Q: What sequence folds into this?
């Protein structure tokens, strides 16, 4: 999958199997990634586990676990069936259907942290925002604490896991076809219910640009599955919503878009 | 990832020291340090194991709330505190690590009262993962 780290680094990684994204005294998030096609090195996320830890704070008297898997609808509660916990609803879950899939937002008020888990097509996506102090604090944990401290969101992917967008992409679709689908204005998945339509109108997914356009092209060339366009658009939207400053840091892809417009006809 | 082996060793260590469970004592801190060594030794195999990471976070938390570093230093006069038994693997090499910053707001904020509202910096960082 494609990773944007807390430091703003952007990588495409193999990271097959289970990997921790975040682990601090308050929150742990782990994902499991599986190959998207037989023989392909590219993987996508099929399971997300979120632990809101109860041990480090009086705001939560027990650990709350949220689990989402790609082969089932997103649960709208923690695994114990609750959707809020703690004084003043310190931890809450909100579920929403959209035209592009479903999403769950977990808010942890006492650490000003939001976790979003999306299901788009057959795969899952993850986004989080949390205070700078929490990120920089747990990134300082080292071997003397008995851990090698792997947190993909903090350190990024290990070098051995990083893929190259040009040389590691597949060829199920041509570059031009993939780009045309990624820059196309309309979705191939129309809303099926009025609730979804309402959510769709609120969603306001914009055009794919920059790194997210490159990632979309990679995904479509590798799999041919148009669900990944929607995944890229919703991830792009989450990034701009949770990290408005990112817009200025993304690479300018104007030239690629011009070529794409030509290729699209 | 043989986390169970470390859990068993933890239970045995508690029993051998005559402890019923977590407590603020040098003896219990010794149990935690033994557990930490065991956890360190399995860290690579357990890299992707969420239970491992949760246990490790608990370990760090317990060592902090029971002030084990200070307690063991008082007890033994050594930084790591626990006298080594013959044949026991050494503690992992200690790497310089910044202290918890004084501006580290979340833990204090989490103790802030029944409203449990956050009082730290509003400087937020974002991380995302999607696609293939």
A:
């Amino acid at each position: 999958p494609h990773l944007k780290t807390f430091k703003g680094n952007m990588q495409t990684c193999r990271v097959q199997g289970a990997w921790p994204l975040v682990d601090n005294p308050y929150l742990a998030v782990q994902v499991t990634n599986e190959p998207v096609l037989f023989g392909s090195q590219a993987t996508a996320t099929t399971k997300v586990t979120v632990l809101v830890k109860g041990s480090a704070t009086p705001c939560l008297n027990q650990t709350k676990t949220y689990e989402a898997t790609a082969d089932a609808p997103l649960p709208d509660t923690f695994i114990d069936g609750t959707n809020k916990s703690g004084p003043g609803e310190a931890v809450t879950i909100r579920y929403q259907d959209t035209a592009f899939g479903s999403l769950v937002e977990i808010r942890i008020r006492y650490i000003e942290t939001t976790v979003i888990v999306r299901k788009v097509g057959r795969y899952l996506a993850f986004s989080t925002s949390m205070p700078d102090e929490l990120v920089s604090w747990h990134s300082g944990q080292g071997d003397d604490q008995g851990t090698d401290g792997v947190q993909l969101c903090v350190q990024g992917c290990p070098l051995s896991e990083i893929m190259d967008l040009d040389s590691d992409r597949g060829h199920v679709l041509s570059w031009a076809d993939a780009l045309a689908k990624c820059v196309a204005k309309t979705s191939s998945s129309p809303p099926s219910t009025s609730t979804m339509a309402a959510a769709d109108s609120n969603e306001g997914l914009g055009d794919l640009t920059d790194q997210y356009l490159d990632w979309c092209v990679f995904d479509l060339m590798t799999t041919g599955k148009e669900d990944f366009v929607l995944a890229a658009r919703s991830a792009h939207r989450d990034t701009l919503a949770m990290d408005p400053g990112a817009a200025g840091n993304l690479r300018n892809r104007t030239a690629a878009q011009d070529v794409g417009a030509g290729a699209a006809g | 990832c043989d986390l169970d082996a470390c859990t068993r060793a933890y239970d045995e260590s508690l029993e051998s020291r005559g402890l019923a469970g977590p407590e603020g004592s040098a003896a219990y801190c010794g149990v935690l340090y033994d557990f930490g060594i065991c956890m360190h030794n399995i860290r690579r195999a357990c890299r992707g194991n969420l239970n491992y990471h949760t246990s490790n976070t608990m370990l760090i938390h317990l060592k902090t709330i029971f002030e084990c570093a200070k307690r063991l230093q008082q007890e033994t006069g050594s930084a790591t505190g626990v006298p080594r038994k013959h044949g026991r693997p050494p503690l992992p090499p200690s790497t310089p690590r910044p202290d918890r910053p004084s501006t580290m707001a979340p833990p204090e904020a989490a103790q802030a009262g029944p409203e449990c509202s956050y009082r730290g910096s509003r400087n937020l960082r974002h991380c995302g993962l999607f696609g293939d």
